Structures are given as C-alpha cells and as structure tokens.
C-alpha cells in the first residue's frame, strides 16, 4: 500500500513545485481574420520585469503581427509574420503596457496562446546569508530553472501538436472536397458524352429514314 502511494506523492510534489515556481498561467485568445486584439499590463516598480511569450496554435499559416507599446506611447517591439516569440520586458518606465496581436495574414481564425509572467527579482544581500542557506537557495533556484525549462518545452511541443493536428484536419477537409469535385466532374463528363452519342445516333437515324 505504501509503495502504491509513492507515485501519487511524487506527482503531487512535482505539481506543487511547478505551481510554486511559476506565478503565471497561459491563456488563449481568438483572432478572426483581419482583426486586432490588445492586452494590457501595469508595471508598478522600476525594478519589475515581465516575461512575455506567445505562440500560434491554429489557423492558416500560423503567422501574426505583434507589437508592444510603452506607457509613453512609444513602440518597443514590432514583429511581422511570426509564429512564436519570447521577450523580457524591463526598464521602459512605470505604467501600463499594451500588447497587440494582429491577424492580417490569411483569412482563417487563429488561436494564440499568451503568457505574461513576472520575472523574479534576484537582487539579494548574499553576504548576510549563511553558507548552508546559500547552498539550499542555489539548489532551489536550479530546480526552479529546470522546471521552467521543462514547462516551456512542454508548451512548445503542445503548440507543435496543435499545429500538426490543424494541418492534418485541414488536409483531410481539402481531400474530401477534392474527391467530391472529381466525382462531380467525372459524372458531368459521363453525362455529356452520353448526350453527344445519343444525339449523333439520333440524327443519323433520321437521315437514313
């Protein structure tokens, strides 16, 4: 019974560490064709840093336009025809930042997964800490970095799975419509041939009578 509980406890511990190591949750937005959606986030401290990442999951060629606007109205980042990207935003002033996504490439509805994560402030007074505390903190930070790497890799693989599945579904739909069109053309040609043969023999029979 005890050995049966070990995997459950391991999963619970990993989930708890992942939850504690990250203070963000990705969310998805839908971008219809030729539309623009903007998100807003406030930075209240000059030492704050924000990690911004996005990836297109479904829709056409998986390409969108993205730009970041600072509180003073200046454009910090402008990207064109991107499938995914990752930024560390800092030292651009205190206030409200605007993150805009534009779907101007293709006519398909696109699903975009966005992550806004407050970066940790690693400024600390290491001289006042004990050696054993430093070792423990370094080990915790290493685990945290590894968990973040695993999370980002899983998100990337999931995004690739979404794109591949969308491509498969789109290809299947095109094959079905192509098959229907081919069948319709073949039926039309057959009817046209039968009609031509019918009229040819009908006119010949009238001429000989």
UniProtKB/TrEMBL annotation:
It is a single-pass membrane protein; Single-pass type I membrane protein. The chain crosses the membrane at residues 175-201. It comes from the Eukaryota. It is found in: Endomembrane system; Membrane. GO terms for cellular component: cytoplasm; endomembrane system; membrane. Keywords: ER-Golgi transport, Membrane, Signal, Transmembrane, Transmembrane helix, Transport. Its main location: membrane. Belongs to the EMP24/GP25L family. Residues 1-19 form the signal peptide. PROSITE patterns: GOLD. Residues 36-118 form the GOLD domain. GO terms for biological process: endoplasmic reticulum to Golgi vesicle-mediated transport. This is Protein ERP4.
């Amino acid at each position: 019974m005890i050995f049966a509980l070990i995997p459950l406890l391991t999963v619970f511990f990993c989930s708890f560490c992942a939850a504690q190591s990250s203070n963000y949750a990705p969310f998805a937005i839908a971008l219809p064709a030729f539309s623009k959606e903007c998100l807003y986030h406030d930075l209240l401290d000059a030492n704050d840093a924000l990690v911004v990442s996005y990836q297109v999951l479904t829709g056409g060629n998986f390409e969108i336009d993205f730009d970041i606007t600072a509180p003073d109205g200046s454009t910090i980042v402008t990207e064109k025809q991107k499938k995914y990207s990752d930024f560390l935003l800092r030292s651009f002033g205190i206030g409200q930042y605007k993150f805009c996504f534009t779907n101007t490439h293709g006519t398909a509805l696109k699903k975009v997964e966005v992550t806004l994560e407050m970066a940790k402030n690693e400024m600390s007074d290491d001289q006042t800490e004990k050696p054993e505390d430093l070792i423990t903190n370094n080990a915790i930070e290493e685990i945290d970095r590894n968990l973040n790497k695993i999370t980002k890799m899983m998100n990337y693989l999931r995004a690739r799975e979404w794109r591949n599945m969308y491509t498969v579904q789109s290809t299947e739909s095109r094959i079905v419509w192509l098959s229907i069109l081919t069948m319709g053309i073949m039926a039309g040609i057959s009817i046209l041939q039968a009609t031509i043969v019918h009229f040819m023999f009908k006119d010949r029979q009238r001429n000989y009578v």
